[in-house]
Amino acid sequence: MSLSNPVYASFRSIGAYVPQKILTNSDLEEMVDTSDEWITKRTGIKERHIAADDEYTSDMGAKASQKAIDRAGISKDDIDLVICATVTPDYFNMPSTACIISDKLGIKNVQAFDISAACSGFVYLLSIAKAFIESGMKKNILIVGAEKFSSIVDYTDRGTCILFGDGAGAAIMSATHDKSESMIDIHASADGSYADFLMTPAPGTVHPVSQQVIDEGLNFVQMKGNETFKLAVKTLTKDVIEILENNHISSEDIPHFIPHQANYRIIKAVGDALKMREDQVVLTVGKYGNTSAASIPMAINDIYESGRLKYGELMLLDTFGGGLTWASALLPFAGKTIES
Ligand code: UT7
User: Is residue 218 classed as helix, strand or coil in its secondary structure?
Assistant: First the structure.
């Protein structure tokens, strides 16, 4: 790396995959004591997509990745790092889902690993990609947020089963010397003292697989919904205000505010606090539910495929999830505008 010709990380393409099967609110009315009216009013979710039994996180991740690679106009052989953010890996210990995705895409002899940051996973990946690229270590990084969340949801627990869905999103982050394509800022943080707000107790070293795990359903996601909700609104708002202030950018100047899609009420509260107009806020929670690490890239893909996201336009990403973790990023879209 030369100081006279610095290298920057740019967001070069986006792709996503959504499984075919749809689980609607009326389907859930048949499964737990809930109603379409309650779910719509409290969350804004109408439906979510669920992967087939033999469709795994890596399958969804590989499909999203292939689109991102094609749209970046590069070959799979140009990729020098693959990282996947997921809390629903194909295998809980090893191999990593990133290794399996690489194999499915025919990407050989390249560093590949997973990260665990729950719903903040994709924005965490952006910070990792930025560090690898701007240090000169890597040039084209495939980052993937993929979740088969249905595999850890207890479909008898109305407090969680109405929220989550499956899917994947992927992006190519590339080195550039063009500063106008560079990620402007990124902030990622965590506070493990809130670990029990959102967790899957097993399997792990605390609760290795046992009959007790099965009997008590410790392999399913558990959430203190209301406490998480309140902290999410507070943290997300503070984080976005800080990143905008630090970079002397007004919320009015953000064409695409892309928050984590957990609950419409959280998004609305944060958007209102920032005085965002409706047309600035990207909303996909109604049709996908909360897809954890896949939520933000699936939302970016949505506005990309509908022609709303154009080369050079600013994206403000903001996310919050288990850990607890949170992160925000300010960056231009440096991919080709889709041809309509
Ligand atoms: O992605 C990572 C971050 N995750 C989140 O951000 C999720 C944050 N949390 C939420 O989205 C909301 O807290 C929920 C949607 C999960 C719950 O909404 P809430 O407004 O916080 O409801 P609550 O938990 O305070 O429960 C209110 C009432 C309770 O009944 P009582 O005790 O007042 O009689 C619940 O039992 O609503 C009841 N309830 C339901 N009723 C019908 C909870 N879930 C349901 C349901 N259908 N599915």
Answer: coil
| Burial class of residue 180, CB neighbours in 10 A (0-12, 13-18, 19+) | exposed
* In the block, residue with structure tokens 């503070």: 238
Q: What is the dihedral of CA 28, 29, 34, 39, to 10 degrees?
A: 60
Indicate whether residue 87 lines ligand 1 (CB < 6 A): no
Give the CA distances from residue 210 to residues 15, 24, 154, 203, in Å, rounded to whole numbers and listed in that order: 39, 33, 18, 9
pLDDT in tens, 121-175: 999 999 999 999 999 999 999 999 999 999 999 999 999 999 999 999 999 999 9
Q: Could you give the angle at the alpha carbon of 36 between the alpha carbons of 42 and 308, nearest 5°?
A: 70
Quote the CA–CA distance of 259 and 296 in Å, as a whole number: 7
Phi, psi of 264 (to 5 degrees): -55, -35
Atom from ligand 1 closest to the CA of residue 228:
8
Site to substitute for ligand 1 among 43, 123, 200, 226, most atoms within 8 A of C-beta: 226
Nearest CA to ligand 1 atom 23: 226
- What is the spatial distance between Cα 40 and Cα 3, in angstroms, rounded to a whole number? 53
DSSP-assigned letter for residue 161 = T
Domains in the chain (CATH in brackets) are 8-179 (3.40.47.10), 185-332 (3.40.47.10)
The 10 Å Cβ neighbour count of residue 2 is: 8
Query: According to the model, what pLDDT value does residue 180 have?
Result: 96
If one counts every other C-beta atom within 10 angstroms of the C-beta of residue 273, the result is 16
Bin 198: left if φ > 0, else alpha if -120 < ψ < 50, else beta.
Answer: beta
Q: Angle 148-232-115 (CA atoms, 0-180°, nearest 5)?
A: 40
For residue 320 and ligand 1, the question of a CB distance below 6 A is answered with yes
Q: Higher-confidence residue: 340 or 60?
A: 60
To the question of pTM greater than 0.85 for the whole model, the response is yes
- Model confidence band, residue 303 (pLDDT cutoffs 50, 70, 90): very high
How far is residue 174's CA from residue 134's CA, in Å, rounded to a whole number? 10
Distance 159 CA to ligand 1 centre (A): 6
